[in-house]
Actin related protein 8 (Oryzias sinensis), 686 residues
Amino acid sequence: MTQAEKELECGGKEKEKERDKEKEQQRGVKRPITPAVIPEATHEQIQTNFVIVINPGSRSVRIGRATDTLPVTVPHVIARRHKQSGQPRYEDPWLIRDGLNVSTSAQSLKYFLDLAELLCVVFLFVVLICVTPNLIYLLYHCVQQKPESNEQRQNGLKMVDQAIWSKKMSNGVRRTPVSAEQARAYNCQIRPAVLDSSSRVKWTNTGHHPPYLVGEEALYVNPSDCYNIHWPIVRGQFNIHSGPGGSMTAVLADLEAIWSHVLQKHLEIPLKDLKYYRCILLVPNIYNKQHVKEVVNMLLLNMGFSAIIVHQESVCATFGSGLSSACVVDVGDQKTSVCCVEDGVSHRNSRLCLAYGGSDVTRTFFWLLQRAGFPYRDCQLSKRLDCQLLQHLKEIFCHLNQDISGLQDHEFQTRFPEAPALLYQIRLGDEKLQAPMGLFYPTTFGIVGQKMTLLQHRYQGDPEDPHDEHYLLSTQSKQDQSSKSAADRRAGARPVGLEGEMSSQCGFGETSELPRSCGGGVGSGGVMQAEMELGPTQGESLMGAGEAEEPLSGHLSRKTAIMSQFESKALGLDKAILHSIDCCASDETKRKMYSSILIVGGGLMFQGAQEFLLHRIINKMPPSFRRLVDNVEVITRPKDMDPRLIMWKGGAVLACLDTTQEMWIHQTEWQRFGVRMLRERAAFVW
């Protein structure tokens, strides 16, 4: 038989086998089912100019190629056109937030009144007759200032003034306080000077009726146009609320529209070509798993990226600054996050998120300006362009330099559409220092009834990820209990000593929160090494000796109660840093963190901020560490970079590392395995 005949015969046998398989399937023959195994990450050469880094924020989003020197930064806002004519306008607030003088019910009332304008005259007359007393009562309580908010703000200002007076200037002389009345007497007499009859600033042209507008174009939409204004992210989380555009679906649609617009218009990448691109997504240190899952789903399946890496902002900040270990402090526009990072690992127990940021400083500065007789008397927090002006005034006037004292004269301009360009003179004193000091005395912000400190809570679980931390925790607890029972039987009536104490400390808690001394944990390397979120002292009180037999549910409920009590506190920035470092497992790690406190984000970009924060950290750090730490260092501009861009730059550096080859999640893998890929491939504990 020739070679050709042999090959023909082999081919015929293979075809017969395939036909037999088809017949078996048609007859319904059951074949053994093998579980789907997640494939190993493939190693391939990646061109970094085809990697897009996305760093979403509450006020701005930064997007760019990994090879770009600087990313594209646009306001993270979208204006959506009304689907029906006559629909009432809705606008997410900028500087106004929950827990302030004007509650969110005032915004709901405005929405109701806009809707009432659409009713016919007769029906409106009947409605007003019925509900006028209730409307008056609601309006009174909406516009009335909350007395506890004002009282808290005044108490915070007293503490700020005391701190200013107690710290001497560089020449050894105490700072002379300046009262607001001194500046007010001058500012109340000021009238604006007309620079030009036209400000040369125009509203966004909506004559062609675009379905949505993004970024600066959205900010300059005329309030009389039929558009709703949405900020999809608030304080680092999805802006989910009961109003228009507040659903999860609407927020994801806004994010997709904004990011797609930036990719097409600024980076000139057609959406159909995204299948050739990969994406690196930066997420907060304290993240919502459901939100991250939905965004990854949007990027891979809706927008069409071929692969994605998800990493934490704090770790990327160390990459961008060139530091191996640091206590990363991200002072953003609406939140401040603190986290200790060591060798590319974010210590879970050290993560804190403070629910205040640069916008709160801006709003407090406006309050202080009003006390000092702010000459631009039509300024309102409900107007977008006024908020933009106040942000600008904060950036150019405020400081943390105690050597600048006394009354000083300044000037500023207002340029609004359909209005002349005006020049204002203003005299200011301590207001420029008092406002940014609110970051260290957050009661000055006057926020009442809100959680001001957020910790990493236990996630409720995802049906797509059956082997999550709940599964690991329950199985580990059963194993610990059975092994302990076996040890007790072997030991007989032996008294409980040091071993019992150790088991009580290591028996319960999340698998990702085991102390270093326990050595246990599930995961790769040392990623799982962490303590309880509440720090060593509070963690020990939760897990004292003799509590190993406590039911798991009872322990978790007590832990949740203590966490809730801790979250109600409004920690200042310096105290939050000290608390985060104190939660590190070893003294050596704490020493590293004190030696490298990295400040990123745009919320603390004030003159003298580095020296001011360093002074407060040194004065408040535990005395025992003052002898151990050779040098406490606060880094505000590593490599002379803009601190607002460091995290994005770290994402770009991440794209160039060889170790990231194992972290890519491909589109086909996500379609098949879903959120399990994040547990397998994420560089942090999912």
In short: The longest strand covers residues 421-428. The chain is about 40% helix and 15% strand. The chain has a mean pLDDT of 81.
